[in-house]
Amino acid sequence: xxxxxxxxxxxxxxxxxxxxxxxxxxxxxxxxxxxxxxxxxxxxxxxxxxxxxxxxxxxxxxxxxxxxxxxxxxxxxxxxxxxxxxxxxxxxxxxxxxxxxxxxxxxxxxxxxxxxxxxxxxxxxxxxxxxxxxxxxxxxxxxxxxxxxxxxxxxxxxxxxxxxxxxxxxxxxxxxxxxxxxxxxxxxxxxxxxxx
Length: 196
Fold this sequence. Notes:
Structural class: alpha+beta
Helix content: 40-55%
């Protein structure tokens, strides 16, 4: 899976750095961490959908370690072992995202704003995935430190792929520079820092 990310996700971040003229060995290394984390989070929010399509991206060694069989992914609701495995995978991706987040402080201008948006989207995804999706919580709102607000929905209307699947999505292009997002739902709220 890591090799897949090297070929699929990391080149995208490197292209963004090149477009903004800010590709250095250090920014590339941090970008690789961010892009790999984003790719993993994308996989983790699509585990059920991928399983229906005959794909399982969860590492086999992790499935064995947590005692999760492929049949566990066929259930309407995730059981305790699968939820524990997903917590582990999400926390690992969140750690990788956190390590790469320092890239935002290294960039300037529109490059900084763009990459901060990607990082914030990843952090919002971590927050949304950390909600118990077996018990849908309604819309998830996010408000940036610059005062911009957007709502993530699970309604099947683009960009959301399917209503009621526990995946909350939104499209947001930040108009202003920001340092954090407040992500909130009926399950609670969390401040997600983009610059720390």
